[in-house]
């Protein structure tokens, strides 16, 4: 199972052909997290009311409907989240709250994470994939 990070779904919404092709070649319907959905929707809600906002709302609904599942943040995820945040803080590499939540869901489910921001998630014991890289 591959979880798509916010930047991957954003690229799909923008029509990035390379990313769309990569996702289609996965051989399985992708999943994402409720955290990613929240990040996307929050970004759209910040925009002034108008055509761009309406277009992005429509594209986000379409992109999210393509997901096999939108994984929730559960109490089990919260345990993993706490460990990740504490581990990174002790190591002097704090992690953003939303990234830690996505990482927790990824680690908890044993899935891989497709993201352009590989460096943000390194050292967390996750299987990371960059759809923009030659190895992606």
TrEMBL record:
It is an enzyme of class 3 (hydrolase). Its cofactor is Mg(2+). SUPFAM superfamilies: PIN domain-like (SSF88723). Keywords: Hydrolase, Magnesium, Metal-binding, Nuclease, Toxin, Toxin-antitoxin system. One of its GO terms (molecular function) is hydrolase activity. InterPro entries: PIN-like_dom_sf (IPR029060), PIN_dom (IPR002716), Type_II_TA_system_RNase (IPR050556), VapC_family (IPR022907). It comes from the Bacteria. Toxic component of a toxin-antitoxin (TA) system. An RNase. PANTHER family: RIBONUCLEASE VAPC2. This is Ribonuclease VapC. It comes from Tsukamurella pseudospumae.
